[in-house]
Amino acid sequence: MTDRPQDTPADMPAAPPDDPAALMERILYEVKRVVVGQDKFLERVMVAMLAQGHLLVEGVPGLAKTLTVKTLAQAVHGQFKRIQFTPDLVPADLVGTRIYSQKSGEFSTSLGPVFTNLLLADEINRAPAKVQSALLEVMQERQVTIAGVSHKVPEPFLVMATQNPIETEGTYPLPEAQVDRFMMKVLVGYPSEEEEFVIVQRVTGASIAVAAVADTRQLAALQKACRAVYVDPSLVQYAVKLVALGRDPARGGLPELAPLLAFGASPRATIGLVEGARAMAMLRGRSYALPEDLIDLVPDVLRHRLVLSYEALAEGLDADALIRRMLDHIPAPAKPMAHAEGA
Question: pLDDT tens digits, residue range 259-283?
Fold first, then answer.
């Protein structure tokens, strides 16, 4: 697969897909021809893509994180680029720079690898703060500024950053402002023995060619259709209550959590829950979100935004343990009525 820009006319509007669920099913089928297992991880990647969010992924090396994103890019005929973050990386290596030509006597702009559809930032916490801040503008504004001129990145645009949980030497902690820009933090675990058997067979066998079953215009149309998925106000209120409980547990009726949480999540978490529920409902073939769509995403949306106190860390607690107690405390709303599908 090349990194050549797609030959898609800029003025050609994306037609709404006739059957969004069927198109996404074809994309997932094509990816799973190559990637074995990792169903939850792949589902979260699709949710982030539909909801136009970004993913922070934590897992040991060799769990098909890069392969998943690369294969997905091939299935949607998009551009894929991978950046290995290292301590000597500078912002220009990421976003691009101005180059002086002695022959013409003029400056030209050389755009960096962030100008792609799917960007994999491998071991993001190995780069210094100024490189991480350069990625910050791209993730939030979907543009970069070089010599005072703004350049838009291609659409759709998804950043998937990875962290290695077993090697901390030579790493830089991610700033809270940047961590908050990630819609979800997904934990990727080891495959089962049965899955690992199939992995070995596929890797050691004949290579599988990935077919492009969609294009970036169709993906943009899916994103637009995702924004039209109905979310009941009671479900939005449920998300608000969950996030508010993390900020002030005592006020929400869980005073025992107050000493364990230093800071709660920002409103970006509430927005991420609602947008993620929309995408999850769309993946499941519905035009309206149900409580289970949102509940399934709560740990992924909140685990990197809750800042635990020293007391919680001393007790060996993690964010997921506190999130489970929060979910048990606040009852989920009743499912929306069937007529809400046409709302």
Answer: 999 888 999 999 999 999 999 999 9
- Is the separation of the CB atoms in 261 and 246 below 8 Å? yes
Q: Which two tokens stand for residue 83?
A: 């950046």
Q: Nearest Cα to 130, choosing from 102, 88, 83, 166?
A: 88
Beta carbons within 8 Å of 317's beta carbon, 6+ residues apart: 260, 308
Q: Is the pLDDT of residue 343 over 70?
A: no
Contact 210, 34 (CB under 8 A): yes
Of 278 and 155, the structure prediction assigns the larger pLDDT to 278
Q: Which ranges in the chain are annotated with CATH 3.40.50.300?
A: 20-219
- CATH architecture for the domain at 20-219: 3-Layer(aba) Sandwich (3.40)
Q: Please state which CATH class domain 229-332 belongs to.
A: mainly alpha
Q: Phi and psi for 317 in degrees, rounded to 5? A: -85, 155
**Number of other residues whose CB lies within 10 A of the CB of residue 183:** 29
From the number of C-beta atoms within 10 Å of its C-beta (0-12, 13-18, 19+), residue 256 rates as exposed
Smallest CA-to-CA distance from 249 within 311, 321, 325 is with: 325
Q: Where in the chain is the domain with CATH 1.10.8.80?
A: 229-332
